[in-house]
Amino acid sequence: MTDQSPLYNTYARSEFAFDHGEGAWLVDARGERYLDFGGGIAVNALGHAHPHLVAALQEQAAKLWHVSNLYEIPEQTRLAGRLVDATFADRVFFTNSGAEALECAFKTARRYHYAKGNPERWRIISFEGAFHGRTIATIAAGGQPKYLEGFGPKVDGFDQVPFGDLEALKQAISEETAALVIEPIQGEGGIRVVASDFMRALRDLCDRNGLLLILDEVQSGVGRTGRFFAHEWSGIGPDIMAVAKAIGGGFPMGACLATEEAASGMVPGIHGTTYGGNPLAMSAGNAVLDIVLADGFFDGVNDRANRLKQGLASLVDRYPGVFEEVRGQGLMLGLKCVVSNVALVRQLYANHMLTVPAGDNVVRILPPLVITDEEIGVALDRLEAAAAELSQQSE
Strand order in 177-182's β-sheet? Predict the structure, then answer.
């Protein structure tokens, strides 16, 4: 974008402008095809223009777009029921984004303690390297200076502790602590997986201290790791969970899920949304669940993930001057780089492949969950070509 653009200058955009997509492929205005392993930052879980999603939205678009939450929305009730049936949750609140889902989660946790007669319990502990969104509250929860700079004093009520440091967490808990919030896999933070034993320790710590456990599964949820939600691998359940990205398959929507107990303070008039849960979004969400909750879908994700991860591990072995390690779970993978991760992303552009950079010098590998074996092979070939070119440049 040039300086003459009418848009806010908040994105350092690449030069690409895509015209259409199909499955794992995007096509630009010149007809050039790019293999999309960024997925709109883990949003397009079923690829581009999935026929079932397209049909669902077309059908709904011809009927009704918006009525507001002043009225019953049958497809909203249906989607909430399906999420409840498939998860730990008893209650669902629909939003338009992941940040809004986290805002609802924070309010739910604070309101729970208030309703129980403990208004002094309102602080929430998070972990360094986290990313929970771009609102004033969620950047405070994430705690990263680069997102906080220039927006005035950090919103009070959020305390960070080092990633994976259980003792520091125990020391941070006070009589004012209401909840903990954590991503089972830090996405923006560099595809850092929280160990299962740490997740179980968090659940135990919350139970013993009367705290609520909030999980941010905005990026790791809806099949991305080979389970419906990433926390299922550790065998624990949260009290509250924020969901977005893949749940709409590309249509903007999110959700805050909670147990009956955790949501007990959220009574009429306490929270609301104008667009959240609108008929278009609900048709998209139900269409996504039709696919990902079908028998055998997650088995297929895990099979494809194993093939891709093995191929990435081979690249790390053969190009130690470019790659350091493979991270992640399922099809939420990352390549920790020796070279600049931005340099790798750009070299992949030259090889007609799209990926997403992350913190800790990592490149995220986020293909559609319906990626084919042939497309995995193409991706590995293009990654190898980029690695070979970067190796030559460094000689």
Answer: 91-95, 254-258, 240-243, 212-216, 177-182, 123-127, 158-161
Is residue 289 within 8 A of residue 221, CB to CB? The reply is: no
Q: Where are the alpha helices (DSSP H) in the chain?
A: 39-42, 51-61, 74-86, 98-115, 136-142, 145-148, 166-172, 196-209, 279-292, 297-318, 341-350, 373-394
Specify the 3-state DSSP secondary structure of 26: strand
* CB 258, CB 108: distance < 8 Å: yes
Distance CA 140, CA 159 (A): 9
Please give the structure tokens belonging to residue 340. 């600049």
Q: Is residue 395 a contact partner of residue 338, using CB atoms and an 8 Å limit?
A: no
Judging by beta carbons within 10 Å of its beta carbon (0-12, 13-18, 19+), is residue 388 exposed, middle or buried? middle
- Its pTM stands at 0.96
Block means of pLDDT (10 residues each) for the chain, length 395 residues? 77 91 96 97 97 98 96 96 98 98 98 97 97 94 92 94 96 98 96 97 98 98 98 98 98 98 96 96 98 98 98 98 97 98 97 97 98 98 97 79
